[in-house]
Specification:
Layout (H helix, E strand, L loop, with lengths): L1 H24 L9 E12 L5 E20 L2 E9 L1 E4 L7 E4 L3 E4 L5 E5 L5 E10 L6 E2 L4
Length: 142
């Protein structure tokens, strides 16, 4: 059991180091970690569409919180339940969404998000994503 734990720990450390090193080795800056941002998955369910699953998540932004540039392996419709959120979808001008408003992010579209208000913000997002892919993939910083 100790050997398995040690192997798993070593594998995790090596995978994390490779994830951070590869973009830098290719000449890109590694993405900065998100701050004041959390995504809690509250449902992950297989869909009737082959190779897809539906995910519902509660996303919270502290005042000044942000999610760095990233993408998802599926569409993301979202609903702002509290606060004000700014999105830059596909390098288009920033859009601001307030309590009660919805947004849609196409699959694979790189986007950052941030709290654009003076109070915490909460969003409920759904993802109709490819199975076996990470829910979010960091994108290189510009």
């Amino acid at each position: 059991m100790k050997n398995i734990t040690r192997i798993l720990r070593t594998t995790f450390v090596l995978a994390a180091a490779a994830t951070l090193a590869v973009p830098h080795a290719l000449g890109a800056e590694p993405p900065k970690p998100a701050t004041g941002f959390s995504r809690k998955v509250v449902l992950d369910q297989d869909l009737s569409i082959a190779d897809r699953h539906g995910v519902i998540a509660l996303i919270e932004f502290a005042v000044g919180g942000a999610a760095t540039r990233h993408s998802h392996p599926g569409e993301e419709p979202g609903y702002v339940i509290e606060g004000t959120v700014q999105l830059e979808i596909d390098d288009k001008p920033a859009q601001v969404f307030k309590t009660g408003e919805t947004f849609f992010i196409p699959a694979g579209t790189i986007h950052p998000a941030r709290n654009a208000g003076t109070t915490p913000a909460k969003v409920v997002s759904s993802y109709f994503a490819e199975k076996g892919q990470p829910l979010a993939t960091p994108a290189a910083a510009r």
